[in-house]
């Protein structure tokens, strides 16, 4: 049987040279076995890459947008985003890219959309075009799709995927960076505020990916998307055991410190002030 596989690579966030070697190996094996493997590569490179092994490439050039880059930096590093802003995150990254794909190279885009595929592998995190194309083929043809590198879009998706995580114990992604707030699930008011943040994500969800309607999808939801996936592939060894033990003794805090120390310990001050370090501070996190 000739398996016609379509693999999405979005903005080079998942490439064969960093973080996707397992997927690359599987793809190469399929291609070497005589199956038809096609990669839809969408990025700001003007030429498609040669993945070898007889793998075909459909390349769509998306011009770099400095404004989008600055918007992304603002969202990720310099702001506190509540549940209402989750739509803005996807709109400023993946949805705008989808619009540009349709406008700049409609021939390639619609050729892929209207192609015949036996399996689709969708790269997350912001591959909005991937969500749309996979959903279309699933609805119209029953074509299975695999979600690569499962990233929980909404915190409630962990329940949809049966990951065994307690959303009450786990604080919402939004923690104020200006208020001295320590999330404690033992407090009713904290649980209520946490529920509010989760609930608002569902209210604004349809407004974050408006250009999916250009593909004929007017009712996209993460819940439906994850439930329709045939499998999940992960590139992190620690994600194999999805259930995560959690307790109420963990205190989640934001960027705001409740107490500010005026001076540093002498040893730490000497290390940071060392001219040889040039202000570079390395922090290592490890678990025993």
Automatic annotation (TrEMBL):
Domain of life the protein comes from: Eukaryota
Keywords: Signal
Signal peptide span: 1-19
Protein name per its UniProtKB record: Glucuronosyltransferase
Taxonomic source organism: Toxocara canis
């Amino acid at each position: 049987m000739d398996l016609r596989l379509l693999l999405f690579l979005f903005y080079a966030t998942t490439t064969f040279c960093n973080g996707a070697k397992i997927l690359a190996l599987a793809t190469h094996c399929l291609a070497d076995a005589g199956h038809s493997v096609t990669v839809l590569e969408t990025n700001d490179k003007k030429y498609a890459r040669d993945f070898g092994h007889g793998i075909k490439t459909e390349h769509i050039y998306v011009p770099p947008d400095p404004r989008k880059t600055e918007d992304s930096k603002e969202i990720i590093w310099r702001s506190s985003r509540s549940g209402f802003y989750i739509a803005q995150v996807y709109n400023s990254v993946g949805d705008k890219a989808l619009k540009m794909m349709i406008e700049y190279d409609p021939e390639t885009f619609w050729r892929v959309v209207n192609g015949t595929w036996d399996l689709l592998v969708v790269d997350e995190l912001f591959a909005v075009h991937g969500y749309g194309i996979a959903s279309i083929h699933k609805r119209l043809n029953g074509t299975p799709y695999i979600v690569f590198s499962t990233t929980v879009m909404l915190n409630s998706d962990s329940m949809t995927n049966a990951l065994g995580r307690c959303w009450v114990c786990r604080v919402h992604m939004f923690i104020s960076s200006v208020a001295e707030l320590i999330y404690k699930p033992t407090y009713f008011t904290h649980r209520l505020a946490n529920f509010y943040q989760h609930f608002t994500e569902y209210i604004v969800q349809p407004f974050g990916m408006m250009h999916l309607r250009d593909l004929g999808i007017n009712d996209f939801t993460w819940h439906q998307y994850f439930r329709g996936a045939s499998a999940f592939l992960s590139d992190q060894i620690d994600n194999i055991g999805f259930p995560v033990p959690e307790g109420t003794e963990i205190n989640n805090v934001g960027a705001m410190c409740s107490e500010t120390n005026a001076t540093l310990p002498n040893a730490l001050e000497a290390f940071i002030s060392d001219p040889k370090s040039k202000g570079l501070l390395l922090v290592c996190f490890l678990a025993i």
